[in-house]
From TrEMBL:
Listed name of the protein: Transport protein particle component-domain-containing protein
GO annotation, biological process: endoplasmic reticulum to Golgi vesicle-mediated transport
PANTHER family referenced in this protein's UniProt entry, alphabetically: GEO08327P1, TRAFFICKING PROTEIN PARTICLE COMPLEX SUBUNIT 6B
Organism: Calycina marina
Gene3D superfamilies on file: Trafficking protein particle complex subunit 3
Amino acid sequence: MSQHNTSLHLTSQFRLSQLRLPLPNLKMSFDSPIPPYNASDPSASFLSASCLDLMMIELVPMAYRIVHDTTSHASLPTPTPVTGSEKSRSRAAGPVAVAVAGEVAGEKKMDEEEEREAVFYRLEMLGYRVGQGLVERFSLVRPRFTDTLDIIKFLCKDLWMLVFRKQIDNLKTNHRGVYVLTDNSFRPFAKMSTEPGGNAVGRAQPFLWFPCGIIRGALASMGINATVQAETAELPGATFQIKSITTKP
């Protein structure tokens, strides 16, 4: 699916003039600031929720653009030296020969599946690094987790509240390394709409790849190697399935 065919309408109102970018030694919080942390304090640092929403919306089309541009540059033909006899033959053949040569040496386009895989890898790896950084920053004051279920609960409550301003609505597990997290009102989907019959579920799927990376990176930072898959059956809900990978000694 190319970004040119996407017709999702993101009906969000952003006031860019109010965005505050994170500074070093950031005290990250979505709560209302209390004294002495206020807008007039030059040393205060805040993270705007609108900034995060805007980033989540723009990540997917940005990833498609980068993949498309990278593929286009990689497929350009390598220039070769042209001899005098070849120049004379080209002039004799005229513009028709040049046009045919351009078609033969034109850029090789990726098919839809290859494009999706490339975009998934880019978004998932971005989220992976973000998840690692979040855990490194916000688990410093906590004792080390010793139980996998406690780690998953930390992910569902603290980390989800930090990133998406709410907790996971439902957590299920088979107690054999598989965990299913359900968010009935996934924040990035709350501002999406499409025309009737516009396959909103399919077009919303790429917006789950970055959160999948966040989950996998956070778990990896806490010592759990896992695979993460996500799907949505109806907007704005989303379901994430975590499967822990046990390494054989």
